[in-house]
């Protein structure tokens, strides 16, 4: 999609990816492999590559405000309604 937009002279800013895991954000921004990241297979470092390319920026969001949870977790009614209201 990015390449197609470039061919039509449409510049696209980096896409923001909201994450509630600070450790994942730090790993994506640090190119050095540590003992804590040795178990992660190289093919799973694609987010790090996208951050390095400037295609994606990772932004921290509080766990309670993570909109993706509405379709990935069993939420109580109050939390579901809060997130549902933010989708509208």
UniProtKB/TrEMBL annotation:
- Molecular function terms from GO: peroxidase activity
> Which keywords does this Swiss-Prot/TrEMBL entry list?
Oxidoreductase, Peroxidase
Kindly provide the name given to this protein in its UniProt entry. Answer: Peroxidase 4-like
| Presence of keyword Oxidoreductase | yes
Natural source organism: Trifolium medium
């Amino acid at each position: 999609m990015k390449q197609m937009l470039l061919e039509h002279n449409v510049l696209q800013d980096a896409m923001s990816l909201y994450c509630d895991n600070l450790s994942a954000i730090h790993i994506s921004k640090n190119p050095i492999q540590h003992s804590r990241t040795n178990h992660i297979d190289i093919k799973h470092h694609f987010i790090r590559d996208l951050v390095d390319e400037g295609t994606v920026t990772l932004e921290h969001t509080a766990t309670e405000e993570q909109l993706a949870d509405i379709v990935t977790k069993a939420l109580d009614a109050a939390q579901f309604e809060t997130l549902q209201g933010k989708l509208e």
